[in-house]
Amino acid sequence: MSRAAARRVLPGFGLTLGYTVLYLSLVVLIPLSATFLRSTELGLLRFWEVVTAPRVLASLQLSFGASLVAALVNAVFGFIVAWVLVRHEFPGRKLVDALVDLPFALPTAVAGIALTALYAPTGWLGTWLEPLGIKVAFTPLGIVVALAFIGLPFVVRTLQPVLAELDRELEHAAHGLGATGWDSFRLVVFPTLWPALLTGCALAFSRSVGEYGSVIFIAGNIPMVSEIAPLMIMTRLEQYEYAEATAIAVVMLLLSFGMMLGINALQLWAQRRQGAR
Amino acid sequence: MSIKFEQVTKRYQAGPVVNDVTLDIATGEFFVLLGPSGSGKSTLLRALAGLTDIQHGRILLGGRDVTHVPARERGVGFVFQHYALFRHMTVAENIEFALRVRGVRAAARRKRSTELLKLVALEGFGQRKPAQLSGGQQQRVAVARALAHEPAVLVLDEPFGALDAKIRVELRDTVREVQRRLGTTTILVTHDQEEAFTLADRIGVMHMGRLLETGTPQRLYRQPTTRFVATFLGAANLLLAQRTAEGLRFGHELAVPFEYLAALPGHRDEVVAVVRPEDVEVAESAERLAHRAFTHGHVHSSGFAGSFERLVVQAAPDSGLRTAIGHEGPGEAPLRVEVLRTAAESATLPLAPGKRVVLGLRRFHVLPTPISGVVLCASDAARREALRGDALVQQLVGSMKARVIDADDDGVALASAGTLAVAGREPPAPASAGSGLRVVPGDADAVLRLARALGHGGAVLALPPGTQLPSRALLLCTSDGARPATLGVLASVMRHLPVEATYVTVQLPTAPRAEVTASFRRLLDARAELQAAHGLDVRTEVHIGDVDGWIVGLLAAEDAPLLVLGTEATAAELAGLLAGPLRPLFQAGARLPLLLALAAARPAASAAPASALAGDYG
After folding, report:
1. For residues A41 and B267, which has the higher predicted lDDT (pLDDT)?
2. How far apart, in whole angstroms, are the C-alpha atoms of residue B397 and residue B404?
3. Euclidean distance between CA atoms A82 and A193, whole angstroms
4. Can you tell me the distance from the alpha carbon of A74 to that of B430, in angstroms, rounded to the nearest whole number?
5. What is the pLDDT of residue B196?
6. Where are the alpha helices (DSSP H) in B192-244?
7. What are B564's strand-pairing partners?
């Protein structure tokens, strides 16, 4: 593409691109590069040793696994929340709508303490769940609960505008053509919404992977059971093992980046299927 | 499959959007619902397809009541204005949708979609996505999709509204052809009269939720019953004409000799004539006209419109011609007559603005409405202003586009409000203000005084101060003889008001059985008569009790209805009525508008059908 052509299409292209690169460098690229550089201090062997330690592997598995489960849970229940908020008119709708944002606004530590108080064996909910043999606090299940709490607004807020814009005429058309309510949802509504749902889940997932404050209280941090990856980094930092900490960080970074790429590809494919121009 | 709407009514909080629509559509017919936006035509269509519910009435498909059947079981093919294609599916998948949800096998589906794509001239487009097609092509897909399950009824909701002119014509032809080939009963909604004319076997015109008239395009254009249809379907000059012993007068000119008017009902002295622009003949002098002259004036403007020339002729003030259309602003409306000439005619006689011309009448049509305008009758200007500002009057005048004439409390038109007084010539209109609806302040004396002045029959609307726009009208006749005239007045009024109308008979609880039967029969007769004579439908209701109690009950109701009372009473009897059962209506605080239809005693034979009101003469 020649410069002249680019200028015609997008005036100020050079300036805005330069600004974008600079901004991304300052905010994202340089800190990340520093992380990579720092981790190289270890040498390849020591790096491998740190990141493949059983506790670290377990924590990585837990962090990504719990985030994935939480994102899937939110996909289902966030969808229902968004649906109810958009499609139904009921007293207190505005209030419920505002409540959805609460996990955004709340300091994560507050959320963590509140959830722990609720789900601890002596807590309001914990006392009822304990006799049923369901332990929530200080188990991976507790982590999923905390992450679901954190991720909910991402799913709801991405779905809401798309759902509100969804042409009701499409459903009318489907019904007129003989579709049952389920047919019309399965064949018409859901395929239209699912790229947005995917975006919401991706956002919730990436937020969950790095979540620390709300999880750390409810997790209980039992080695090999309920230690999350960010905690492993924190403990290294507290022992002034900066290089070791960055090593784990780099692995998380690469894993996250890889998953984001995958999700983006999936979205692109979904959008193509939508018949977008 | 035949379609039948029976008194279908759909209302929102603001009032009815579909108001007592009764309509029969035959199998295989192409029916076009025409009306301005907001007239309720799309809502009616959606009610048919089951996409919206109705509050009153029934809908029958092929004789089967489907009023409460869900949309997917009605099997109506629906084409939406904005296509409503499923964007994530290919064109073929869209078309196959109806078959897919019915569990038809893939091979059979594919065969059908290929067939349909061929039918709408989109062969080979099956694998594309809707977004890759133009608007016209997308609408073709929507038509094919609606036809996939072989529906017995196809409905199209402004299907060409979003397309440009050329594609619209092309697609219109496709739809007509497909409909002819398949013989599917079809209803199409549009606000474009040209579209309606080219497509329809029959047209139904809707306005304010009511189906005003139905008929073939030719009949609706040549012989409309209502002012609205006359002006909505094509251009029309609405002129006031005077019925005299010699014939029909337009201003000073006797345009139509008496023999052509023998069929006109005898109870009106002023009528509204519809004159189409192409039915007006133009010449430089009366001798050169092939038809009788009806007015003269000068060319105000001329416009080129391709194969036609559109002339606007300003009638001379001394011609005395009067329009039936009101205008805003002070003084008399400048009276202009629109004329349409063929290119050949304008080549033979070129006319520049300012040129003096004489106009002849090739053909005209007289509206059967008994109300030619609105006459505000009060003893002083302040009261007339109060009447003018009344919500009911505003709605009527605005919707009828009627002339408003100021008159004194005897109904005599004020000089300044009549036609322009021209030195040396008598004003053409008699002192009575024509056959307009008399509007008076709500007091019994004023009503009686005006009724006496009217003598030969007419309509009086009494408005107590502070009335609101009613949402329902109740009709009561004191005798069967008063019914035809009353229904005529009611029809003219309810076409221009968003009210739900009910025909009421009042029955004493002690009445003998035979009388009760007669009372019910009367209701059926009234409904049938209104349908036959005016094409409108009403609800019916029997009130058990007496008239006095009924009226007191109405006054206590939260939403004051418009009470339409038809009577043959003489002035003395009317005075008795006003002092008797109607008395509460005029007491302080009463807010019930009363419309009195005064029927003149006349021979029964004069009730002529509407078709006899057109003149076609040379």
Report:
1. A41
2. 7
3. 11
4. 82
5. 93
6. 193-199, 217-222, 227-232
7. B475, B595
pLDDT value at B427 more than 70:
no
Taken in order of first residue, the domains within chain B and their CATH numbers are 3-221 (3.40.50.300), 234-367 (2.40.50.100), 374-605 (3.40.50.12370)
Q: Which two tokens stand for residue A46?
A: 């020591």
pLDDT band at A277 (very low <50, low <70, confident <90, very high): very low
B positions 65-84 inside 8 Å of A (CB): 70-73, 75-78, 80, 82, 84
Q: Which pLDDT belongs to residue A271?
A: 75
Q: Which architecture does CATH list for A51-274?
A: Orthogonal Bundle (1.10)
CB contact under 8 A, A275 and B131: yes
Backbone angles phi, psi at B124, to 5 degrees: 85, 0
Q: DSSP string of B359-401? A: EEESEEEE---S--SEEEE-SSHHHHHHHHT-HHHHHHHHHHT
Contact A255, A64 (CB under 8 A): yes
pLDDT exceeds cutoff 70 at B223:
yes
Q: What is the pTM of this model?
A: 0.81
Give the residue on B whose Cα is nearest the Cα of A189. Answer: B86
Please tell me the distance from the alpha carbon of residue A116 to that of residue A120, in angstroms, as a whole number: 5
Confidence band of B605 (pLDDT split at 50, 70, 90): very low
Query: What is the spatial distance between Cα B155 and Cα B32, in angstroms, rounded to a whole number?
Result: 10
Mutate to test the interface with B, among A169, A177, A184 (most CBs of B within 10 A): A177
Residue of chain B whose Cα is closest to the Cα of A179 = B101
Domain ranges of chain A: 1-40, 51-274
pLDDT value at residue B430: 42
User: Using CB atoms, which residue from B51, B80, B98 is nearest to A178?
Assistant: B98
CA–CA gap between residue A234 and residue B404 (Å, rounded): 87
What ipTM is given for this predicted complex?
0.75
Average pLDDT over residues A35-53: 86
A236, A15 contact by CB (below 8 A): no
Mutation site for A-interface testing, chosen from B86, B153, B156 by largest number of A Cβ within 10 Å: B86
Radius of gyration (C-alpha) of chain B in whole angstroms: 27
Between helix A242-274 and helix A229-238 the angle, nearest 10°, is 160
Interatomic CA distance for residues B354 and B347, integer angstroms: 18
Say yes or no for a CB contact (<8 Å) between A177 and B148.
yes
Mean model confidence pLDDT for chain A? 86
* Of A21-35, A105-119, B410-424, the least confident: B410-424
| Minimum CA–CA partner of A172 in chain B | B51
Q: Give the pLDDT score at B419.
A: 43
The structure tokens listed for B266 are 């005898």
User: For residue B131, which residues of chain A lie inside 8 Å, CB to CB?
Assistant: 275-277
Please state whether B379 falls in left (phi above 0), alpha (psi between -120 and 50) or beta: alpha
What average pLDDT does the segment B340-353 reach? 89
What would the mean pLDDT of B80-92 be, rounded to a whole number?
A: 91
Indicate the range of A86-100, A255-269, B259-273 predicted with least confidence.
B259-273
Average pLDDT over residues A136-154: 89
Question: Quick one: pLDDT at residue B610?
Answer: 34
Asked whether the beta carbons of residue A167 and residue B131 sit closer than 8 angstroms, the reply is no
In whole angstroms, give the CA distance from residue B357 to residue B610: 33
Nearest C-alpha of chain A: how many angstroms from B103?
A: 11
How many whole angstroms separate alpha carbon A236 and alpha carbon A242? 7
Residue appearing with tokens 């002045």: B453
A167 with B78: Cβ contact below 8 A = no
